[in-house]
Amino acid sequence: MHMADALLSPTVGATMWACSMAAIGYSSKQLKKNIDNKTIPLMGVLGAFIFAAMMINFTIPGTGSSGHMGGGMILAVILGPYAAFLVMASVLIVQALFFADGGLLALGCNIWNLGIYPCFLAYPLIYNPIAGDGTSNRRIAIASIVSVLIALQLGACSVVMETLLSRKSELPFGTFVLLMQPIHLAIGLVEGFVTSGIITYVKKARPEILQSSSAYRPLDASISVKNVLVAFVIMAVITGGALSWFASTHPDGLEWSIEKVTGKAELAGQEQGIAHALKGIQGKTAFLPDYNFKPSVQEESKEKKSPVWPAIDAGTSVAGIVGGGIVLGLVLLIGFGIRFFKRKTEP
Amino acid sequence: MTFDKEYYNIGLLDRLSYQNTFVHRLDPRIKLIATLLYLFTVISFSKYEVVELFPFFLYPVLLITLGEIPLLFIIKKVVLVSPFAIFVGIFNPFLDTGRVVLMQELTISAGWISFFSILVKFTLTVSTALLLVTTTSFPGVCHALRQLGVPSLFVSQLLFLYRYIFVLMEETMRIVRARDMRSYGRRGTGIRIFVRLVGILFLRTVERAERIYYAMLSRGFQGDMPTLKRFRITASDLGFAAFVIAFLFIFRFYPVSEELGRFVQGVF
What we know:
The complex is a heterodimer. Chain A has helices at 10-33, 39-55, 72-79, 81-99, 107-131, 137-166, 173-205, 207-213, 218-222, 225-249, 254-262, 266-285, 311-314, 318-345, and strands at residues 58-59, 66-67. Chain A is mainly alpha-helical. Chain A has two domains: 5-251, Arp2/3 complex 21 kDa subunit ARPC3, CATH 1.10.1760.20; 287-295 and 303-347. In chain A, a hairpin with a 6-residue loop joins strand 1 (58-59) and strand 2. Chain B has two domains: 1-136 and 232-262, no CATH class; 151-229, no CATH class. Chain B has helices at residues 2-16, 22-25, 28-43, 58-66, 71-80, 83-89, 92-95, 110-135, 138-147, 152-182, 191-217, 235-253, 256-267; strands at 99-101, 107-109. A two-stranded antiparallel sheet of chain B has the order 1-2. In chain B, helix 9 (138-147) packs antiparallel against helix 10 (152-182). The longest helix of chain B is centred in the middle third of the chain and has 31 residues, at 152-182.
């Protein structure tokens, strides 16, 4: 369920990064106002706990397949939404770097899908109202299962949206949703069950942990449900609008991302100038300029959603294939060469 | 046992990141930014470009060889996480049926090209991300993040997380081992036992966090984990940065593979 770099376009990746970074900044700021230093080690160690717990596998009743634990909701219940979100983001960063789950550019998407939904949507809007004051085990069980289910469904749905907006996959929306949602319904049920089990276990064994942790829950007191909803609607409209706008005006997205990174547009113009010059050189040095193959029949069934089919790019030429092979060979040669020389120079 | 293997793998990544080579000595900030730029450039190629991506293999290859990273280890990790990308991409050949002429006689559907493009991008992005962390110590990455403006509270708990992954994983390994010793086949691996194990692990974790906090408090902890190490940008850092920018620039805007192919065809 982790989004992968290869399926992303730069536009979607950068937008989600910006959103997630803003959320991290905002949460850190909120948290700084009302925690004691004791929470920082607790957050870090609980993040490590989520890791360790993910590695314990268990058999899912009835199916015999094996399951793992996610953990956003447990963290939200114990630490409160802001701290839980930061821990989830850290867990995802470590996963991206060490387990290559998802990727660095997809990190923004993953933090959004697996962090924002459980911590800022499912926890305050679903878990809290159902669980109430947390005295009834049955209410805790229902609250955790429902909130985990909904958070996972939202996350899976976002994976679909992000993939489709990136236009790297040809899967139509309906099919993709039908593939993703039921799988995550099953996962969500198991995860919700595990979450409720752990919360009730902790409640029984060390009730003061749950009680004292409510001290770090600024969201309950300071933010009303209505404000959260309004903020989400606004964010959704802005991201949706921005994404579709960029997606339509910059199908390539590179210029835009350069602009985004450097903060000014001149670089893009400059690069186009150099690229232009390079094109000129290319024209002069081309040995067989008309050796390109055209893409055969521009079929009518081509996607209606994106009519700009990059026809030129698809016309892979023999020159391209030959050159690609040579480049790969050269790269390998360079690699082995360096290794060889290193061995030689070392005593 | 998969658990031991996972643990060993993280440990290996950690150990590799403390080697002393040219790549390891580079400033973590430069490496982080270079990696992000590289990833951006790679995924900015449109879905029908494959050959244009080949020159980009040079970057991970250079990191692997200069940083003395075991190649097989990286390849294994890349293969291990590939299922999702393959799952989403494998439908392309069947859904995108536009024909593309490859050679005189050979025609394939455009979907194969985009599928292959996804695979190449996947290999490049995943291996480069792994190489960032095998050539830079994770605390180095964290301090780089802090200097690049990420809130220090976030960075501090990220450092904690990383430090205690190893401690808690060893603890978990003992728990899992004890469970496996006592469970014959499937018995004892059910969801109820799992919940209890995780519950115990959780309580131990919270208690450990308390002890850690008091230990740190007595050593002057004030909510931040500054580093003594001063990061300085040296000439080799600037050289590396210039190289990466030139590299990305040339291969993004100049179709090297195609030109080379033409050249060779011209010769023969």
